Amino acid sequence: MRVVRYLAMWFVFLILFTGAFISLELMEGYKIRTTEYYGLLNLGFTLVAVVFLAAAIIYMIIMFPLAWLLGFVPWNRRWFIVYILLYAALWAAAGIWLFHELYQPDFVLHYNLHVSSAVWMFGVMGLLYGWIEWIMLERVVRRT
Question: Taking all residues of the chain, what is their mean pLDDT, rounded to a whole number?
């Protein structure tokens, strides 16, 4: 049953990560109007497909081992906030890193881009991911 949970969380991660990236690109990337930057306007579906495939690899390298390790901790309702905030902080850090990888310092300065939008977008997606995983974890714990 645990394998099914991790497989389901993989699809949830793919959708949420890709959605957070597209949202960030719509909020900040559309401000950049130069041919130097290849964003959603220039690459379109290709960029979405690359991010989707990268998210699949990121889940296997980072999120799956983390979720597997957290599965051994005897969680209860008191730890719900800690569990959710752990994922929100992890996702927000990923958003900051991705923002700095996507947008050069010149773009940030000239086009008035804000890293806070990446923190909020990925942080909210991290909260949602943690909440969904908590629900799935709680169902597995109740059945056993």
Answer: 83
